[in-house]
Amino acid sequence: MNSLLRPALSLILSMTLLTGAAYPLLVWGVGQLAFSTQANGSLVRDAQGEVRGSALLAQAFTDERWFHSRPSAADYGTLASGASNLAPSNPALGTRVLAQADQQFDAQQGPVPLALLTTSASGLDPHLPPAAVNYQVPRVARERGLAESALRALVQAHTEAPLVGPAVVNVLALNQALDRLPSQSR
């Protein structure tokens, strides 16, 4: 029996050390050396070095001076992330979407883009389609006393074209750039 138990325990111990310690440490080390920013959460910092968020997570921007992110079923919290799971036939979804549409509707621009009314699958998507961001330009321009053309140029400069999928704008990065606009253009 001892001849069977000893190799089995040795194998368990060696595999535990290999897969439970050595491999995770190797992956962590490679991540820190080759992809330090991504491995540490893709944190976004302001001019003073303060962490303002992550480029990978949406934030709630409620002040009218900012571009707003899409709604979050998880209230932008990472612990409860996930979709609302409300079916299109659910009256609660229709009520919520109509209330948000009424709140954001601008008669001069027409219907509110769907991305400003519906949550993403995770509830934490930091991106919006350019049309949804451009819909907000008149409000932000009015609140900040900026020319709409300057804001549209800023949106265009922050529009990303991923390898796969439609163009998107990271709302946190756009709002940070908005905050850095020179005071003479305000």
Walkthrough of the structure:
By secondary structure, the chain is mainly alpha-helical. It folds into two domains: 2-36; 42-185, no CATH class. Helix content is 46%, strand content 8%. It has helices spanning 2-34, 36-39, 91-104, 130-144, 148-157, 171-179, and strands at 43-45, 51-54, 127-128, 159-160, 168-170. Strands 3-5-4 form a three-stranded antiparallel beta sheet. A two-stranded antiparallel ribbon has the order 1-2. Strand 4 and strand 5 form a beta hairpin. Helix 4 packs antiparallel against helix 5. The longest helix has 33 residues, at 2-34. The protein is elongated and about 85 Å long. The termini are far apart. The model has no long low-confidence stretch (mean pLDDT 86).
Quick rundown:
With 186 residues, this protein is mainly α. It has helices spanning 2-34, 36-39, 91-104, 130-144, 148-157, 171-179; strands at 43-45, 51-54, 127-128, 159-160, 168-170. The strands form 2 sheets. It has a 3-stranded antiparallel beta sheet with strand order 3-5-4.
Largest sheet: 3 strands, antiparallel
Q: List low-pLDDT spans.
A: none
Number of strand elements:
5
Question: Proportion of β residues?
Answer: 5-15%
Residues in helix, %: 40-55%
Order of helices and strands: HHEEHEHHEEH
Q: Mean pLDDT across all residues, rounded? A: 86
Write down the overall geometry.
elongated
Number of domains: 2
| Category from helices, strands and their pairing | mainly alpha
Q: Rg to the nearest angstrom?
A: 23 Å
Number of helices: 6
Output the strand order for the largest sheet: 3-5-4
Straight-line N-to-C gap: 82 Å
Protein name: Potassium-transporting ATPase KdpC subunit
Main location: membrane
Organism: Pseudomonas baltica
Subcellular location: Cell membrane
